[in-house]
Structures are given as C-alpha cells and as structure tokens.
Inverse folding.
C-alpha cells in the first residue's frame, strides 16, 4: 500500500531537515547569496551618492532627508506585498522578479533629469529591494538542513551587510572620477542574477508540499539531499491556508512575539539605514574629508559584517533571545560614548563596536528569527511584514536626522538618537522573544500554537 500524502510529506521534511549540506545546496545558496549581497549594495548607495546629489540639485538638509527616506517608503510597500505574493505563488519566480525590478530602476536613475525624477526612480527601486528581502530569507530557511539554518541565514544577512562597505569602497574609487550616476550604472548588474535564478533555482519544497504537490517536492529532494533522517518529524497540523495571512501574525498565539518583532525591526531599521545614510555627511561636517568619510564608513560598517558572521555560531549556542538583547543594548551604550569624541581612532573604534553589536550580532539574528518564527503558510508574509516595519525605521530616521541637523544641534544628538532606539530594542528582545534554538520550523509552530508534539521527534540543532 503506498504511503499517504501526509506520511510522504513528513518523510520529505525529515530528509530536508536532516540532510548533509550537499554541493546542490551550496550552488542554490550561493546564487541567492549573490542576489542578497547586491540588494544590500544597491540599498546602501544612498550614503555614497548623497553628497553628490546634494551638490548637483542644490538640496537642503530636509530635501536630502527626503531622498534618503523615499527609498524606504518603496521598500516598505515591496516588503509587505511580496511576502503575501510569495506565500501564494511560491518563492522562485517572485525572488527573481524582485531583483530584476530594482536593477531596471537603477538604470533609470542613471538618466534622471531632475531631482523629482531621481526620487521617483529611487522609490520604485525600493519596491524591488524591499520585496527581495521578504522572499530571499524564507527561501533559505526552507531548503537548508535545520542544523545549518541559523548560521546560513545570518551569513546571508552578513552578505547583505557587506553591500554597505562595498558601496563605500566602490564609491571612493568611482564617484570622484565618474560622478554619482556611475554608481547607479553599476547597480544594473543584478538583472543577470535574476535571469540565472529563473533558469536554475528549484521551488521551495515546503511551499510545494503545502500546495499538495508531493511528487514535485520529491523530485527536488531527490536531487538535493544525499541522506534521509532516522525518523520522521511529528505531524504538523497547520490551518488549511492557501496564501499568507496577516491574521496569523496578529492572532492570539503570535501577537506578543509579533509586536516585539515589529518594534525591534523599526529600531533596527532606524539604526542601520539612518547611520548608513547620514554617517558620511556627519563625519564630513566634523572636518573629515569626503574620501576619508567614505573610508571611515567602510571600516565601521565592515564590523557589522563580522558580527553577523559570528552571530550564526552564537545563536546556536546561547540562543536568539540573549544575542538580540545583549547586542542591541551594548550597541546603544557604545553610541552614547561614540558621540562624545571626534578623534579619528576613537571614531573608528567606537563606531565599529557599535555596528558589530547592533547591525551585526543583533540585526542579523533578528532576520534569522523572523524567517523561522511563523508557519510555512505565512512565513514569507511574516518576514515581509517584519522587513516592512524595518523600513518604517529606515523611512523615519533619515528624515528625522535631516530635521535635527537642520536645527544646528550638536553632533552628540545624532548619536543619542541611535543609542536610545538600540537600548529600547534590546529590552523588547529580552522581554518578548520566543526562543527557537534547537527546533525545526515545524516544531517552532507546534510549540507556539500548542499542537501536541510526538515524544519521539528528532531535535535538530538549528
């Protein structure tokens, strides 16, 4: 007698979760990683091109803040919509399309004839960028073996963060010679990655199983995994949803965790995007030359990459809650000290430590947490809304900083803003984070929703 669809699905999930990390896993992961890195690069062009845009279009601080914020308005829309679209139509095609969208509008920005046109193209570009984030991380979380999920999702966030110092480094070489428009020309390269994704990436097995396409899922698992698990995971009873549901995110079981996650994302977005958008300009006002300000920014933001890589190991050992809480709080306290000095060595050291703990340890852990917290039927929706709230922080903070700087306040106020929001995020993490360490994504859902879990389940080291 052939196995039931439910038994077959459970067996496939066991093979996915307990498989070795194969060459096929690596090929898929590197492809997604490249797209995610380029997403980070394009987003973080703002701080690199902003000084040139200000001079070209004779902008005030308030107008410059609008240019910084409009990208995040588009990203907010893209992140919120893409998660639901991906939960309904799959991961592969939406992921490739999002990358092509932001590449096409990069080309449009090269030829922007006015500040209004540039703002419009940057906002439309933001829709693709925000959508990419909402789809890429759930895709990774759903196909990698469970014990590798935390390290590989945080490593993807590290690749995204590498986009910031890379943008600063490339800007140092390109902008003085060819101007700020050349940076947008470089940002058209991702269209090639999108085409490769359409041609080579498989669909998410968990998405296929949720839609009842067991045969298609089996074919992918057969090419992806070398081994099988020793036992099937407990049956996962998920509501029969056909698309991502925001109601799941704010339902009774998830509400506490969702509110805390969204609040942390707002704070994390304000820290990351506010700092990357304005730090070169603030350093320049402190007397640091333009090229040196790009160099300092590259060094400082590179520390965030190191933190993100280390986070993948820490969250498997001490858990998500501790890394989030400690990372945010330490970052906030360092920002307060950072704002009291103008010495070059101290600026670089304190800035590097603040981004190491804030954008690196805490920021990357936050996305790993968001990509695993919700059930498969709403996973991309959950990550999309989390990313959207991060963009709220990115939307508000650059404009707020522009307003504050226009009031001719001391530079300390700039760093005070970042310190306060980081400490508040850390407190939220310590109070209302569900610990996901040592669980498969199905087991996380079972424990939050109260579904009985079989005593014989195999615990994955995730």
């Amino acid at each position: 007698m052939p196995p039931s669809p439910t038994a077959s699905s459970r067996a496939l999930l066991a093979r996915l979760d307990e498989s070795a990390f194969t060459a096929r896993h690596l090929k898929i992961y590197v492809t997604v990683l490249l797209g995610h890195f380029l997403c980070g690069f394009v987003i973080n062009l703002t701080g690199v091109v902003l000084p040139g845009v200000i001079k070209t279009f004779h902008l005030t601080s308030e107008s410059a803040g609008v240019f910084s914020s409009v990208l995040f308005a588009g990203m907010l829309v893209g992140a919120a919509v893409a998660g639901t679209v991906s939960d309904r139509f799959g991961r592969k095609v939406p992921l490739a399309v999002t990358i092509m969208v932001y590449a096409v509008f990069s080309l449009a920005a090269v030829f922007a004839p006015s500040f209004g046109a540039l703002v419009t193209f940057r906002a439309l570009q933001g829709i693709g960028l925000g959508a990419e984030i909402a789809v890429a991380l759930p895709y990774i979380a759903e196909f990698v073996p469970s014990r590798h999920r935390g390290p590989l999702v945080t490593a993807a966030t590290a690749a995204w963060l590498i986009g910031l110092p890379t943008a600063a480094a490339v800007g140092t070489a390109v902008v003085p010679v060819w101007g700020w428009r050349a940076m947008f020309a470089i940002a058209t390269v991702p269209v090639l990655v999108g085409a490769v994704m359409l041609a080579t990436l498989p669909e998410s097995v968990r998405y296929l199983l949720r839609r009842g396409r067991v045969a298609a899922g089996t074919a992918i698992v057969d090419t992806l995994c070398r081994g099988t698990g020793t036992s099937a995971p407990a049956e996962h009873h998920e509501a029969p949803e056909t698309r991502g549901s925001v109601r799941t995110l704010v339902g009774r079981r998830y509400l506490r965790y969702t509110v805390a996650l969204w609040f942390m994302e707002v704070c994390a977005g304000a820290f990351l995007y506010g700092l990357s958008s304005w730090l070169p300009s603030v350093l320049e006002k402190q007397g640091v030359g333009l090229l040196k300000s790009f160099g300092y920014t590259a060094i400082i933001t590179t520390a965030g990459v190191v933190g993100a890589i280390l986070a993948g190991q820490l969250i498997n050992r001490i858990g998500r809650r501790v890394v989030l809480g400690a990372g945010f709080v330490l970052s906030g306290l360092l920002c307060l000290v950072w704002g009291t000095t103008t010495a070059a060595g101290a600026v670089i050291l304190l800035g590097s430590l603040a981004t190491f703990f804030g954008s690196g340890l805490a920021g990357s852990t936050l996305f790993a947490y968001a990509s695993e917290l919700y059930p498969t039927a709403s996973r991309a929706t959950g990550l999309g809304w989390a990313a959207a709230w991060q963009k709220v922080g990115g939307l508000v903070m650059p404009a707020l900083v522009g307003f504050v700087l226009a009031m001719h306040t001391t530079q300390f106020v700039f760093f005070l803003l970042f310190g306060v929001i980081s400490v508040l995020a850390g407190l939220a993490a310590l109070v209302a984070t569900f610990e996901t360490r040592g669980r498969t994504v199905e087991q996380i859902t079972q424990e939050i929703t109260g579904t009985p879990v079989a005593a014989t389940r195999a615990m994955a080291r995730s």
